[in-house]
Specification:
By secondary structure, the chain is α+β, with helices and mostly antiparallel strands. It is built from 21 helices and 15 strands. Strand 9 and strand 10 form a beta hairpin. The radius of gyration is 34 Å and the shape is elongated. InterPro entries: DnaQ, GIY-YIG_endonuc, GIY-YIG_endonuc_sf, GIY-YIG_UvrC_Cho, Ribonucl_H, RNaseH-like_sf, RNaseH_sf, UvrABC_protein_C. This is DEDD exonuclease domain-containing protein. GO terms for molecular function: exonuclease activity.
C-alpha cells in the first residue's frame, strides 16, 4: 500500500497580524506622509476640518502631494479667518470631509504619519473616520514637536513652535497657517531633525518614534544593549560588568522585547535600576515558546537574579507528610525520602502547607502534638483531647488500628486518590458554623478547604504527567510546520520545530537522539521543578496540541481530586454559604 503523502494542515488564525511599517526600517528607506490640518478650532468631534495638506517623502525625495479645502458644514469663527485667511465663501464649493477621506486614507497607506503636535491632527482625522464609517488604519505616528524637544536644547531654540523650528532649519517654505505650506515646512523640519538623530544612535523609524517619547537618560544611554539581538523565541539575560545575571526574561521575539526596556512604556523603578547596572544582554535562542519558558525557569533557579521577583527560591518549597509510627501525625519537611508514602505538595511556602494541615486537622482527628508516642508508655494528654479534638492516642484511648482508620487513612486516600471524606467533613463544619452565624470562622474553614483541594488537585495532575517515562507532543507553529516537545518524567528533555510542508517524524527522531537523559524518582516532581512541569502541562492541554507518542497511558484517578475543581473555584472566590449545599 502506498504511503499517503504528508500534507501540512491549515493553520488559519495562527499567523501573526502583519500591518503598518516595520519599526526596524531605516529612516532613509521609510516613506513619510507629513500632514497638517486647518480647523474651525473646536474639539475633534468628527467635523471642523477646513483644509488638509499632505506631502509624501522618502529619502529626502518628494513622492506626492495632496491638498484640498474641506467644507466643515458649519460657520468659521472670525478669528480663524483672520489667522488662516480661509473665508466662508472659499469653503462653500469645497467637498465635505466624508468625500475627502477615501483619497487621504489611500494616500497615507503604508507610510509613517508625521505632524507637528501630532495628537491634535490625528485626533481630528480619527474622529472624522469614526463619524463617517471609515476604518482608521492606525499608522505609526511621529511627532516633530516631541522629537524637537528631545533633539534641540533651549540654547538652540527658545521654543518648539513650527515657525521657530522653520527659522532654525531655514526651511524652503515658511509656515503661513495654511495646510500645504505648513506641511511643506514640517517636511524640512523633519529632515533637519533626522540629521540630528544620528548622534543619538537613532537609525530606524521605531527608534525615532520611541526617542520622541519621554525616556530616561539611562534608557537613552543604554539603548545600544538592544542592538544585534535575534528576532526569534528565546531567553534574554541582562548581565552586569562582572558577568553576573541581573535579570532573566523570555519572549517569542527577543529583539523586540529587549528594545521595549528602552522605551517610554517601561516605567518600573526596579527595571530602571537594573538597566543602570547592566552592561550587556545575552540571548539564548530556543525552538519555541515552551522551551524558552522552561529555560527561563531553570536560569532563574540556578542564578537567582536580583531583579527577578518570581521563582527566585524554588528550593524553599515544602511538603506535608504523614510520619511513621503507630500514631502518625502531619509534619512539614523540606524534602521527601524514598520511604515516605503519604504526602502532599509541593507547597510554595510553609504558610500554605500549614493552612492545608489545618484543613486536615479540622476534618480528621490527627494528633497535633510533636511527642514521640510509645505503645508501652502513656503520655499525659493535652488540651485538644479535653476539647474532643484529638482521640488521645498518647493515653492509649484508641488503638493503632482505630487511629489509622479514623485519622491516617483519610489523609492517605485524599492525597493519593479521593478526598471525598475530607471534603465532606469540612463542608459539614462550614454548615454548622454558618447555621450558628459564625461567618468569620466559617470563612477560615473555607480557606482551609481551598488549601486542601488546591494542593491535592495540583499534586495529582503533576503525578499523572511525571509518571510517564517519555511523551512526545506537537503543536502547529505560527508560520507553518510543527513545534515539537519531548518530555521525560515531567521534564522537558528536547525541543525543536519541523519545517513547513515536511513530515515532522525525522525532526522528532533527531530530537529524541539528542535529548537529555532523565531518570525517574520518588514523588510527583522527581526530575524537574513543579513550575516547569506545570508549564509543560499547560502547553500539552491546549486544544491545538497533539500527543504523538507516549510510553504509557496518561490518566488520573476517576474519583480523584480533579472532580472538585468547581468546588475549589467557589471556595476561592465565593462565600461560605455558597458551599453549604455542595456535595460533589
Amino acid at each position: 500500500m502506498a504511503q499517503a503523502e504528508y500534507v501540512q494542515e491549515s493553520l488559519a488564525g495562527l499567523d501573526p497580524a502583519v500591518g503598518g511599517v516595520d519599526p526596524a526600517l531605516p529612516l532613509y528607506a521609510t516613506t513619510f506622509v507629513v500632514v497638517d490640518l486647518e480647523t474651525t478650532g473646536g474639539a475633534p468631534d468628527g467635523g471642523g476640518i477646513t483644509e488638509i495638506g499632505a506631502v509624501k517623502v522618502r529619502g529626502g525625495e518628494q513622492l506626492g502631494v495632496l491638498a484640498t479645502l474641506v467644507n466643515p458644514g458649519q460657520p468659521i469663527p472670525p478669528f480663524i479667518t483672520v489667522l488662516t485667511g480661509i473665508t466662508q465663501a472659499m469653503l462653500v464649493p469645497a467637498p465635505p470631509i466624508e468625500q475627502v477621506l477615501p483619497s487621504f486614507l489611500e494616500f497615507i497607506d503604508d507610510a509613517v504619519l508625521v505632524a507637528h503636535n501630532a495628537p491634535y491632527d490625528v485626533g481630528f482625522l480619527k474622529a472624522a473616520c469614526a463619524k463617517h464609517g471609515y476604518r482608521w488604519p492606525n499608522p505609526r505616528v511621529l511627532d516633530t514637536a516631541a522629537l524637537a524637544r528631545r533633539v534641540l536644547t533651549r540654547d538652540e531654540v527658545p521654543n518648539r513652535k513650527l515657525g521657530t523650528l522653520a527659522a532654525y532649519f531655514r526651511t524652503a517654505t515658511q509656515p503661513t497657517h495654511r495646510a500645504l505650506d505648513d506641511a511643506k515646512a514640517t517636511v524640512d523640519v523633519l529632515h533637519g531633525l533626522i540629521g540630528r538623530l544620528g548622534g543619538h544612535r537613532v537609525d530606524t523609524v521605531g527608534d525615532a518614534i520611541e526617542f520622541a517619547r519621554a525616556v530616561t537618560p539611562t534608557q537613552r544611554r543604554k539603548r545600544h544593549l538592544a542592538e544585534g539581538l535575534p528576532k526569534v523565541p528565546g531567553v534574554y539575560i541582562f548581565r552586569a560588568a562582572d558577568d553576573r545575571p541581573l535579570y532573566v526574561g523570555t519572549s517569542v521575539d527577543i529583539a523586540t522585547r529587549v528594545r521595549s526596556y528602552f522605551t517610554a512604556g517601561e516605567k518600573r523603578a526596579r527595571i530602571s535600576e537594573m538597566l543602570a547596572a547592566a552592561e550587556r544582554v545575552e540571548a539564548v535562542e530556543c525552538a519555541h515558546s515552551l522551551e524558552a519558558e522552561v529555560r527561563e525557569l531553570r536560569l532563574i533557579a540556578a542564578h537567582a537574579p536580583p531583579y527577578n521577583r518570581r521563582s527566585k527560591y524554588p528550593e524553599r518549597m515544602v511538603w506535608l507528610k504523614l510520619t511513621d509510627g503507630p500514631y502518625p501525625r502531619l509534619s512539614i519537611v523540606r524534602d521527601l525520602s524514598p520511604t515516605d508514602t503519604a504526602y502532599l505538595g509541593p507547597f510554595t511556602s510553609r504558610r500554605a502547607a500549614e493552612l492545608a494541615a489545618a484543613g486536615f486537622h479540622d476534618a480528621v482527628p490527627l494528633r497535633q502534638c510533636t511527642h514521640r508516642l510509645s505503645l508501652r508508655t502513656v503520655t499525659p494528654a493535652c488540651a485538644l483531647a479535653e476539647l474532643g479534638r484529638c482521640p488521645a492516642p498518647c493515653e492509649h484511648r484508641i488503638t493503632p488500628e482505630e487511629y489509622d482508620d479514623r485519622a491516617a487513612a483519610p489523609f492517605r486516600t485524599a492525597t493519593a486518590s479521593d478526598p471525598q471524606r475530607v471534603v465532606d467533613a469540612l463542608l459539614a463544619r462550614i454548615d454548622v458554623l454558618s447555621a450558628d452565624q459564625r461567618y468569620e470562622e466559617a470563612a477560615v474553614v473555607r480557606s482551609r478547604l481551598a488549601a486542601v483541594l488546591r494542593a491535592t488537585v495540583r499534586m495529582q495532575r503533576l503525578a499523572a504527567l511525571t509518571g510517564i517515562v517519555e511523551l512526545a507532543a506537537a503543536r502547529p507553529a505560527a508560520r507553518g510546520g510543527w513545534e515539537l516537545a519531548l518530555v521525560r518524567h515531567g521534564r522537558l528533555a528536547g525541543a525543536g520545530v519541523s519545517p513547513p510542508g515536511v513530515h515532522p517524524r525525522p525532526t522528532l527522531t533527531a530530537i529524541r537522539a539528542t535529548a537529555e537523559t532523565v531518570s525517574g524518582g520518588h514523588g510527583p516532581v522527581p526530575a524537574a521543578t513543579a513550575e516547569e512541569s506545570e508549564r509543560i502541562l499547560s502547553w500539552l492541554e491546549r486544544p491545538e496540541t497533539r500527543l504523538v507518542e507516549m510510553s504509557s497511558g496518561w490518566s488520573s484517578p476517576v474519583g480523584g481530586a480533579g472532580r472538585f475543581r468547581d468546588l475549589l473555584a467557589k471556595a476561592e472566590n465565593g462565600s461560605s454559604h455558597q458551599l453549604s449545599t455542595e456535595r460533589p
